[in-house]
From TrEMBL:
Residues 9-76 form the Calcineurin-like phosphoesterase domain. This is Calcineurin-like phosphoesterase domain-containing protein. Residues 109-152 form the Purple acid phosphatase C-terminal domain. SUPFAM superfamilies: Metallo-dependent phosphatases (SSF56300). GO terms for molecular function: hydrolase activity. InterPro entries: Calcineurin-like_PHP, Metallo-depent_PP-like, PAPs_C. Its cofactor is Zn(2+).
Amino acid sequence: NFLSTTLQYRWMDTDMSSVNRTRTPWLIFQAHRPMYASSGDASLFPDVDPRFAQAVEPLILKRRVDLVLVGHVHNYERTCALYEGRCKQMPHKDENGVDTFDFSSDYPAPVHAIIGMAGFDLEAFNNHTDAWSLVRKTEFGYTKLFATKTQIT
């Protein structure tokens, strides 16, 4: 249970607030089901639970989470810096053409990434692309993150 009145919610809030951001510059939130997804699954276990986003998204913004990593959906999708369905910052391309976000001067919102592309069967995306969906891939793969004090790649 992730509602704001529960023990789990209070634990998430306490845990995230205890991070010393001068020692640990990045805060990554991991969950099973995404807050945003472009797949069109309307099965018994839908891809997105809007109650989860409604309850937890304000908390991850308050605690200045940099990156939200989720699974459940068997594909790859990455967003802009996103809050309440709206892009708060779009990336710019660095000299190598890589999408780059700058949270150093003004934190906008976290970037969300679905990293379920190692799943059993890959899921198709719906035909409608929301403005917050920047990268969508339907191919098997895995995610490897490297972090320094100044960047995550």
